[in-house]
């Protein structure tokens, strides 16, 4: 058995996510107490040459590159057991493991938000970018991950532009904002009002603000809570008694009180339409039971959506996203194949380099030996002999190198590499250059020598 | 020659219409760009055919049904292109280009020979009155198309049908504003059209206003649009009511423009 070849570094990925592990497990693996988690992980895993550590509220993953993925895997398990104080069997049971191709695919899918709780939600890409930046800053990533991670980002971007996976609003608050845009066009300068101070209303209000809504009024039964929320959102608080006047000013109203019956009646709204100068009014009723009389929707220029109607919109959009996800998976498969062929070129390079160095070493040694006995040769003849040996070596090595570069696949390729290293007894060198980089440096070298000769 | 170029323009318009329809179905932006360019090419051809006709005849080609429908189609096309250069209102082309095509067909259905003009009508007021009036019709056509889009979109939202149609049409407020904008330009032009017509009438027939059917219906149309604009500006009318009024106003306008001439003959009949 030949010893483990340098350059045969592969990717190993272990992780837990919202599908495989409960939050109690995820939070124990998240290393939230550690100041520089990626360095900590990196130092704890001696068999891994590169590490990226991703921790979000839905997933914790260690993405590593190692010469010995088997050992790396065991080390990661051990590391997690140690720092989470969970039973190894528990971690084993709710974690997933990917190596090689499957790890590449997994990273691409995560980046493209195909593995997310809500498929297509864009936050994960930002989180993955942050994780990679940390690893880069701490010097924990290397050649392999420096290629893999940026590639994952560009794949995610490609999917975003080529499919409509992120075009649909898939949460209630996003759906509400999308609807408001279809009614008002631009939301800049519009006034929003929250009636009741629930969490979902707050979220919707934040989205509205992010989309340009300028004024925000919070009306609540207890004024203190209204004050609190309006402060947090940067708005103004009123009591429920002032509702009618505030409704005249508002454009978008989000209602979410716990009131047992309706608090806004059709007649009430009909009356305010004239003082409003018939400006469009958009009601979002996310309360159960409903706060707003459904008849309000029948008034001209007034639009009402209740929670069920919004949910329906969201469900339709989700279905649309699933369809787009199929297209995205196809793109990912193509990119995985491309990435693999790059990866494959990596372990060929050291062998080629070793082969060439060995041949060059022999040539130089033998040439020097012979020249000692050939004292009668003049300068010109020495040059000619040198040229002869050089061309002999390069002609001899030409075919094997081409064979390596074009490379057979899988089993064959590994066999070829093993055979070559055994036949020529080469020490593979230069494990950190890819084929392209290597060719480039080669080209530069020959340029240099030629310019020296000239 | 002018008729041949006119027919070329007609087929170009049909191609553009097809392009806009494909655009609204597939949502491909490049198709919309191409369709707009085709429409522009059609407008250029159309312009050439109108100018040639002007050179041939002794008077502005705004006399026969063939002429006025042709010029109306030309004006709608020009107004649409100018409007889109500024506003880029989504899906508008799919609504306006069929209307252009319809007016082109109406024009083609009428005889195109140039007839001598009765001496009473030989005046520089002819091109002024007729062109201003027809340009105002063109803008009111745009506001009519936008109002139809408004009503479709409003119906989708009220009924909570947020499907393919909803996605393809612009937002309500934008549609409302744009319809208003066309009204605000179209209405003053309509007013000027009526005033110049009355001045011309004084010169030709000796009286500013003689209550012939065309004049009466023009006034009715004018009052409808005036009422609509008044309500919009003072009470803040908008949305569905305003869109319905725009459509009623436009139908009245069409009757004034076409129906009166066919059904209620008077001094204003087009040369046929």
How would you characterize this protein structure?
The complex is a heterodimer of chains A (454) and B (272). Chain A has 454 residues and is an alpha/beta fold. Chain A has helices at residues 23-29, 37-44, 69-84, 88-94, 100-111, 123-137, 143-162, 172-184, 199-210, 223-233, 243-249, 266-273, 307-373, 379-406, 410-424, 435-453; strands at residues 10-17, 48-55, 59-66, 96-99, 191-195, 215-220, 236-239, 252-255, 281-285, 302-306. In chain A, the strands form two sheets. Chain A has a six-stranded parallel β-sheet with strand order 7-6-5-8-9-10, with helices on both faces. In chain A, strands 2-3-1-4 form a four-stranded antiparallel β-sheet, with helices on both faces. The two termini of chain A are 47 Å apart. Chain B is mainly α and 272 residues long. Chain B folds into two domains: 1-116, Four Helix Bundle (Hemerythrin (Met), subunit A) (Up-down Bundle), CATH 1.20.120; 132-272. In chain B, α7 (172-205) runs antiparallel to α8 and α8 runs antiparallel to α9 (240-263). Chain B is globular. The model of chain B has no long low-confidence stretch (mean pLDDT 92).
The helix content of chain B is over 70%
Beta-strand proportion of chain B: under 5%
Shape of chain B: globular
The residue-averaged pLDDT of chain A reads 85
Q: What can be said about this structure in brief?
A:
The complex is a heterodimer of chains A (454) and B (272). Chain A has 454 residues and is α/β, with parallel strands linked by helices.
Please describe the topology of this protein.
The complex is a heterodimer of chains A (454) and B (272).
Chain A: E1 10-17, H1 23-29, H2 37-44, E2 48-55, E3 59-66, H3 69-84, H4 88-94, E4 96-99, H5 100-111, H6 123-137, H7 143-162, H8 172-184, E5 191-195, H9 199-210, E6 215-220, H10 223-233, E7 236-239, H11 243-249, E8 252-255, H12 266-273, E9 281-285, E10 302-306, H13 307-373, H14 379-406, H15 410-424, H16 435-453
Parallel strand pairs in A: 5-6, 5-8, 6-7, 8-9, 9-10
Antiparallel strand pairs in A: 1-3, 1-4, 2-3
Helix pairs in contact in A: 5-7, 5-13, 6-7, 7-13, 8-9, 13-14, 13-15
Chain B: H1 2-26, H2 29-56, H3 65-87, H4 92-108, H5 125-158, H6 164-168, H7 172-205, H8 213-234, H9 240-263
Helix pairs in contact in B: 1-2, 1-4, 2-3, 3-4, 3-5, 4-5, 5-7, 5-9, 7-8, 8-9
């Amino acid at each position: 058995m030949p010893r483990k070849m340098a350059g045969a570094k592969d990717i190993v990925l272990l992780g837990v996510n919202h599908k495989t592990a409960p939050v109690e497990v995820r939070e124990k693996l998240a290393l939230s107490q550690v100041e520089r988690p990626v360095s900590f992980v990196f130092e704890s895993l001696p068999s891994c040459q590169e590490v990226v550590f991703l921790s979000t509220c839905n997933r914790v993953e260690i993405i590593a590159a190692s010469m010995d993925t088997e050992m790396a895997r065991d080390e990661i398990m051990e590391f997690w057991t140690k720092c989470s104080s969970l039973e190894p069997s528990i971690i084993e049971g709710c974690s997933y493991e990917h190596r090689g191709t499957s790890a590449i695919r997994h990273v691409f899918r995560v980046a493209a938000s195909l593995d997310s709780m809500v498929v297509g939600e864009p936050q994960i890409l930002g989180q993955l970018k942050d994780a990679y930046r940390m690893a880069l800053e701490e010097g924990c990533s290397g050649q392999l991950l420096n290629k893999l991670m940026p590639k994952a980002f560009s794949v995610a971007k490609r999917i975003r532009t080529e499919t409509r996976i992120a075009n649909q609003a898939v949460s209630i608050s996003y759906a509400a904002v999308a609807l408001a845009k279809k009614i008002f066009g631009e939301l800049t300068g519009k006034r929003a009002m929250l009636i009741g101070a629930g969490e979902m209303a707050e979220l919707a209000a934040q989205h509205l603000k992010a989309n340009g809504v300028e004024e925000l009024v919070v009306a609540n039964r207890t004024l203190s809570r209204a004050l609190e929320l309006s402060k947090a959102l940067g708005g103004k608080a009123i009591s429920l008694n002032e509702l009618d006047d505030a409704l005249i000013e508002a454009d978008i109203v989000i209602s979410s009180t716990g009131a047992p019956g309706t608090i806004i009646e059709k007649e009430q709204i009909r009356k305010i339409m004239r003082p409003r100068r018939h400006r469009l009014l958009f009601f979002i009723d996310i309360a159960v039971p409903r706060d707003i009389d459904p008849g309000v929707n029948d008034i001209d220029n007034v639009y009402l959506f209740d929670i069920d109607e919004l949910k329906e919109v969201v469900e339709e959009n989700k279905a649309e996203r699933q369809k787009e996800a199929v297209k995205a998976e196809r793109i990912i498969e193509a990119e995985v194949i491309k990435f693999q062929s790059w990866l494959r070129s990596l372990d060929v390079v050291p062998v080629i380099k070793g082969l060439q160095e060995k041949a060059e070493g022999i040539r130089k040694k033998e040439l020097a030996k012979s020249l000692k006995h050939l004292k009668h040769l003049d300068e010109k003849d020495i040059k000619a002999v040198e040229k002869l040996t050089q061309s002999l070596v390069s002609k001899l090595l030409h075919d094997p190198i081409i064979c390596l570069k074009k490379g057979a696949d899988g089993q064959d390729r590994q066999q070829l590499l093993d055979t070559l290293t055994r036949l020529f007894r080469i020490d593979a060198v230069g494990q950190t250059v890819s084929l392209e980089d290597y060719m480039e440096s080669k080209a530069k070298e020959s340029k240099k020598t030629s310019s020296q000769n000239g | 020659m002018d008729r041949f170029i006119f027919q070329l323009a007609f087929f170009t318009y049909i191609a553009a219409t097809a392009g806009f329809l494909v655009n609204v179905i597939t949502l491909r932006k490049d198709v919309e760009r191409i369709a707009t360019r085709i429409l522009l090419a059609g407008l250029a051809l159309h312009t050439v055919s109108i100018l040639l006709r002007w050179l041939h005849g002794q008077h502005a080609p705004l006399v026969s049904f063939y002429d006025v429908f042709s010029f109306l189609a030309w004006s709608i096309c020009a107004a649409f292109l100018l409007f889109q250069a500024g506003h880029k209102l989504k899906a508008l082309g799919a609504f306006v280009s069929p209307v252009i095509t319809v007016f082109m067909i109406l024009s083609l259905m009428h005889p195109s020979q140039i007839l001598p003009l009765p001496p009473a009508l030989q005046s520089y007021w002819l091109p002024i009155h007729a062109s201003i009036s027809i340009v105002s019709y063109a803008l009111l056509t745009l506001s009519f198309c936008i109002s139809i889009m408004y009503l479709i979109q409003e119906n989708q939202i009220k009924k909570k049908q947020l499907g393919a149609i909803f996605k393809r049409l612009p937002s309500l407020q934008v549609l409302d504003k744009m319809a208003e904008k066309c009204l605000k330009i179209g209405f003053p032009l309509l007013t000027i059209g009526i005033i110049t017509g009355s001045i011309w009438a004084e010169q030709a027939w000796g009286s500013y206003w003689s209550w012939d059917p065309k004049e009466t219906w023009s006034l009715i149309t004018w009052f409808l649009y005036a009422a609509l604009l008044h309500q919009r500006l003072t009470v803040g009318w908008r949305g569905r009511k305003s869109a319905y009024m725009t459509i009623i106003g436009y139908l009245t306008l069409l009757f004034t423009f076409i129906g009166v001439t066919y059904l209620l003959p008077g001094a204003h009949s087009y040369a046929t």
